[in-house]
Amino acid sequence: MAPKWIAPMKAVSGDIPAGSGWAAELKWDGMRIHASVTEESVELHSSNGHNVTSSFPELSDLGRGLGSPAIFDGEVVVFDGDRPSFNQLQQRIHVEHPTQSLVLANPVVFIIFDLLAIGDQTLLPLPYRDRRQLLSDFLPDGPTWRTPSYVEDGSEDLLELARSRDLEGIVVKRLASPYKPGGRSNDWIKVKIRLRQEFVVVGWLPGQGALENQIGSVLLAVHETPESGSSDKGHQSGQDSNSNSTLRFAGAVGSGLTDIERDSLKNLFVERLTPPIVEIPELDKPPTWIEPDHVVEVEYGEWPIDGALRHPVYAGRRIDTSPNDVVRELR
């Protein structure tokens, strides 16, 4: 029998693969969700396994009328017009029991792009093409959920469509690939238009003027494994006790931080005396180091291999990603 939660399959970043045998979907700027449904109940889990059912009451009828239990994989998004808005989604993903007014102001839609189980039958070994066909046959679109279209061997055209609509990009999936829980696979490739990824927050710097004693910018890092080939010179306090990786500094971001977000982050951060990163960068002011327990998403213009992010803009906090899973998404 399939479990209620399955660690999601993740994509790697890259370019559109050559050759046939691939399908492409739009990349949805939202929160990854697995939904385990029956006719009587819906249970929602984020990609790190947290139960977030109470956060999205709009999806309570997802299993009604299906006739069989099922597990779906997809993204919860909030639309601003015809495009997803991660900023508006931020109003929802941190609220366990949203008020009716909040739900009406920022309604979510569950974009379902995979079917992992029907009844007690797992579908994980089936090829992507078969799972997608079963999904289309099994689940009709509803008031707060939909199955998006996909194209076979038309990735370039879909990427241009995404670019024309100012979307994040596309995901290209091998038609013959099974679903591989819990890891990144070259069978799924994220092709991004806007450079954006998740980072671990490792500290903060005070601002200027009215922000002199407040967060002006947050310091960012990603996990790096020994196999990446970089030397671990400098301060070694950033060794991750839960894995063989280290946290390496990636830059700082202050643009995009609102006063509300600054206060929220400061209340969440737990200070520590030693830096959690392996090399201490040269900074304009003494930093406040924190426990590397929180993940944020940042959009940026460029990220040199041996340097810090350029033109970063803070997008929001991620509660659906474990800090230990955050690595540099090389293109």
Describe the 3D structure.
The chain has about 325 residues and is mainly beta. It has two domains: about 10-190, D-amino Acid Aminotransferase, Chain A, domain 1; about 195-325, OB fold (Dihydrolipoamide Acetyltransferase, E2P), CATH 2.40.50. It is built from five helices and 17 strands. It has helices at about 85-95, 100-105, 130-140, 155-165, 260-270; strands at about 10-15, 20-25, 30-35, 40-45, 70-80, 85, 110-120, 120, 145, 150, 170-175, 185-190, 195-205, 215-225, 245-255, 290-300, 315-320. The strands form three sheets. Strands 3, 4, 5, 6, 7, 8 and 9 form a seven-stranded mixed beta sheet that branches. A hairpin with a 2-residue loop joins β7 (about 110-120) and β8 (about 120). It is globular and about 60 Å long.
What is this structure, in a nutshell?
With 331 residues, this protein is mostly beta strands.
